[in-house]
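Q: Sequence in, structure out?
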Amino acid sequence: MVTKMDAKKLLVSLSLAVLAIFMVATVSAAPIVDGTLAVEVDGVPAAELPAVIAGESVAVVIEFTSAVDATEVEVELELGDSEVVSKPFDVEAGHTYRKALKIDVPFELKDEVSDDLELEIRIGNDDDESNYENNEFVLRVQRPSFNPEIKSITVSQSVDAGESFPVDLVLKNMGYNDLDDIYITVAISELGVYKTAYFGDLVPLEVCDDDDDCDEDDTDTISRTMLGKLGVCDDDDDCDEDDTVSGRLFLEVPYGVDAGAYTLEVTVENDDVVLKATKALKINNEFSENVVVVSSSRTASVGEDAEYTLLLVNPTNNIKMFTIVTESNDQVSSEVVGQSVVVVQAGSSETVTVKANAEEAGTYNFDVSVLSGNAVEGTATLTLNAEEKTTANPIIVLTVILAIIFLVLLVVLIVLLGKKPAKTEEFGESYY
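A: Exactly. Output:
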């Protein structure tokens, strides 16, 4: 049976247990940071509204004094959609700690050249999280001074050699200032092919449409200088300034290039900035060589001519005139059989014969070059195997002649023996 004294002791015990739990909870919920934070952004105190550039990384240095002993403490930074967390560390009450973190500044300035963005800082662990007044700091985020951005490069995945193909481009000004006198170059450096075009000027922001009047209702909140940066024009001007431009350039691939993978390079530049981008391109070519050698090696006796056949191919849409230049030296002499200038119709081919001879036995290489104007269309390396002339033995020659005569006589004899004798007609006398 429980007495009043036992009940009183039990109640006191429960009260002490609840108080202990409450005290533990209170201690565990105590903030880690004692007082306020000292925060610098790229060396500028966060309280002084530091300016940062969109798309870059900034160094954030945080200094605080710990109010408690705690383990596995983390510092977390959040700036727009960018987040970064430090490695866990331990703190002791009454001591000061300094942590430096790098965080990317997000590019969230689609309709502004600059804007405010909150930097949130949280310090804590799984048990605690600091609750202090200045855990949010305001940063001024600006666009880069000059920042053209290539929104798209549209080109066929593969093109044929000799084909002229379009390259479609979309360019947008994502910078703080105007982009004046923009030139865009598209090129395939490996082939020495390029084309440059003038794309005009781009303002940072396009404020009104071409058919609208220039509305300056925001002059109370935007300075006159900023209006110029935003592309707002005067009342007497038409709103014809854009922040985006599109255009098309054509490149022509030479006929004689090798088939394979190439790189299309796009360069955007003016006096203030240069921007480069690349895109993969495949080139097909069924006729990578304009000069086709039927057989590159021939054998002939010393002093005799060996002939080689070359096929000149013109896959273009225009008539082409080729000049054939042969190589001669002290060892081998070569020349074109017929005219050395050959006209080949568009989309057709012509055959050329080259002859060569040598005065001494041996193996010789010589080149035959095919030119179109001053450009070398192709070079064929040909081989001549010159052999010594063989002198026939007179006895062997006489024996061969006698054998031929014998065979001829034998054939005649066989023919004569094979003939049947003609029947003689018998005449008799008749008496009446």
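The mean pLDDT is 81.
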